[in-house]
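Teaching note: in complex prediction, the entire set of molecules is handled at once rather than each chain in isolation. The prompt given to students was simply: 'Predict the structure of this complex.' The entities are:
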Amino acid sequence: MSRMSRSERIGVMTKILLDQPNRIFTLNYFSELFGVAKSTVSEDVMLLRRALNTFNLGTLETVVGAAGGVKYKPQPGQNRISDFIQDLCEKLSDPERILPGGFLYMTDLLFMPNIAEQVGEIMAYKFQDTHPDFVITVETKGIPIALMTGRALNCPVVIARRDSKVTEGSVVTINYVSASSRRIQTMSLARRAVKQGQRALIVDDFMKGGGTAKGMIDLLSEFGVDIAGVGVMIATQQPEKKMVENYAALIELKQVDENGRKVVLEPADWIVEGDLY
Amino acid sequence: MSRMSRSERIGVMTKILLDQPNRIFTLNYFSELFGVAKSTVSEDVMLLRRALNTFNLGTLETVVGAAGGVKYKPQPGQNRISDFIQDLCEKLSDPERILPGGFLYMTDLLFMPNIAEQVGEIMAYKFQDTHPDFVITVETKGIPIALMTGRALNCPVVIARRDSKVTEGSVVTINYVSASSRRIQTMSLARRAVKQGQRALIVDDFMKGGGTAKGMIDLLSEFGVDIAGVGVMIATQQPEKKMVENYAALIELKQVDENGRKVVLEPADWIVEGDLY
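The expected output is the structure of the full assembly:
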């Protein structure tokens, strides 16, 4: 292979680094891949970092030491986050989404890969300094954003099941009370899925009373797992007091008026104010 | 903003194009973004394409006409696919994965974002010329690979539920017979999730008798949806005759010997032989 130009190297480097956010690649790796000196790779990294920063497309972090190298950190800029969440609120406020009982249809949006990916990157950005070992959600609708949060954090994703499945091996099951429906529900986690002492980031699509998140916290405590944080895409304004104390929501759902055909949602304060940490 | 160098433009262009595979971006878009002539953008595209091709990292396709522009097509090279699937087979053949009843524990791997993403890219590559309007799976374990297939194809993902949920609105439900367990199961799809005349790519993690895939085909026919293809990550060797005729599996599961503590899996022939279409 003839030696590549800097432009070509940077294209390839971007692909490799961005495909696996938060994974460290050594300068040696790129040096060998391209057949150039490490100092040349360093210059490539500096150029690429500057370019990404200019457009708020994330950043490259240099990690020093034996396991050192460079990694890509998604860092969606404040404007980008705020525009995206505002746009999502508009999509969600379509009265056609109102279901009987005052529920809001949002499965289609949650399962749009591009939307899930952006929500995941915002969650990852919000919680990156809590250093979770894995992301956890309970099936089903929260899975896409949990998966994309895991992708951005370079973490595995763990799923609590609604009922125990033979394909999960032995499981720990808890019953919990859904605050909103006031019904007893069940949640199971495979014994082999997590280890004592790990840290979990809980991610879900929707929080009303917080019973499900509380259920996940209780289930994880059975495994001796610590909670790094709780992030939900949408939290309802009412009840104001949730069953979990600390959580971050991207969107606040203020009202679903079934008769008046009206949905009111707003980006959370911290999204608007740019107070991302 | 001072004018960027070609290297910097290519870094940014790579990020934007690769974030949304198979989505067309006009040359004008980049021309305005960078403040350079369209001819310069064309040259950037050519350079980036050559660099990606050199490393088997996919390609850039130029689309002519009014809606024309450039798009990124994931195109994992033959060696890359074959190495990845071989490695996955090794991971899956760990006897520790054998569960009571001869089942294989694989949830952890399915929910590793990086594994799901690579499986999704292979599925997308295999089925890209079938032009599906959406990717569909039935909850739960197939969701990550379905989502990543949708991401690579720039398609929405649709989920059939095991039971009907109030958050899905009105649904169509069918009962079907699981070929392997010989039990009657239920599957529901929200009325608003799909439209008549669309084409569906069915993706799932595992096929034994093919009853679930057959169930999805029957359910979609109730909606007047055509089948673009059926792709599964793993298909069992037995029974040889499945309830669906045409499907592509990435891996063949030959044996799970619970007493002998042995799992035998192999990459599918078309993966090994490079006969990817």
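Point out the following to students. Residues 150 and 156 of chain A are 6 Å apart (CA to CA). Chain A touches chain B through 66 residues (CB under 8 Å).
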